[in-house]
C-alpha cells in the first residue's frame, strides 16, 4: 500500500463508523416517518417519539465517543479545550437534539 491508499483507508477507523452508522439509523427513522405520512396512517412520528429516538441514538453515540474514543472536552474559540468529563454525554445529547429538531423545523418551511 502506498501513502495515498493508507490515507484513503478511513473505513478501518472507529471515528468513521460512528457517523456512518448514525447517518444510516437516522435515515431509517426519517424513512419510517415519511412512510407513515405517505401511507396516510398518521401525520408521521410525533415530536416526542422522534425526540426519544434521537436521544436513544445520541446516548449510544455519545457514550461511544466518551468511553471508546476518550473524548471528554469541548473546544471553545479563544478559550481552548475545556474538560467536561462525563458531562460530555449530556452535552452531546443537547447538541444532537437541538440540531435534529432545527433540521426538522427547516424541513417544514420548505
Show the helix and strand layout.
Blueprint: H1 3-8, H2 14-38, H3 47-68, E1 73-76, E2 80-83, H4 88-108
Antiparallel strand pairs: 1-2
What is the typical, i.e. mean, pLDDT? 80
Helix/strand order: HHHEEH
Q: Helix/strand/pairing class, anyone?
A: mainly alpha
Write down the Rg. 17 Å
Residue share in helix = 55-70%
- The number of distinct β-strands equals 2
Q: Work out the strand percent.
A: 5-15%
* Low-confidence runs of at least 5 consecutive residues: none
Per the principal axes of the C-alpha atoms, what is the gross shape?
globular
Number of helices: 4
What is the topology, as strand order, of the major beta sheet? 1-2
Strand count, sense and closure of the main sheet? 2 strands, antiparallel
Distance between the termini: 47 Å
Give structural attributes.
110 residues; mainly alpha; two-stranded antiparallel sheet; 4 helices; globular
Write up what this structure looks like.
With 110 residues, this protein is mainly alpha-helical. The protein is built from four helices and two strands, in the order αααββα. It has helices at residues 3-8, 14-38, 47-68, 88-108, and strands spanning 73-76, 80-83. A two-stranded antiparallel ribbon has the order 1-2. β1 (73-76) and β2 form a beta hairpin. The longest helix has 25 residues, at 14-38. The radius of gyration is 17 Å and the shape is globular. The protein starts with a helix and ends with a helix. The mean pLDDT is 80.
Amino acid at each position: 500500500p502506498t501513502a495515498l491508499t493508507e490515507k484513503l483507508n478511513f473505513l478501518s477507523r472507529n471515528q468513521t463508523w460512528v457517523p456512518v452508522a448514525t447517518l444510516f439509523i437516522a435515515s431509517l427513522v426519517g424513512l419510517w416517518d415519511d412512510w407513515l405520512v405517505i401511507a396516510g396512517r398518521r401525520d408521521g412520528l410525533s415530536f416526542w417519539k422522534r425526540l426519544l429516538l434521537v436521544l436513544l441514538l445520541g446516548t449510544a453515540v455519545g457514550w461511544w465517543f466518551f468511553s471508546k474514543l476518550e473524548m471528554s472536552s469541548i473546544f471553545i474559540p479563544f478559550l481552548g479545550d475545556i474538560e467536561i468529563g462525563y458531562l460530555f454525554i449530556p452535552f452531546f445529547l443537547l447538541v444532537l437534539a437541538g440540531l435534529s429538531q432545527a433540521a426538522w423545523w427547516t424541513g417544514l418551511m420548505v
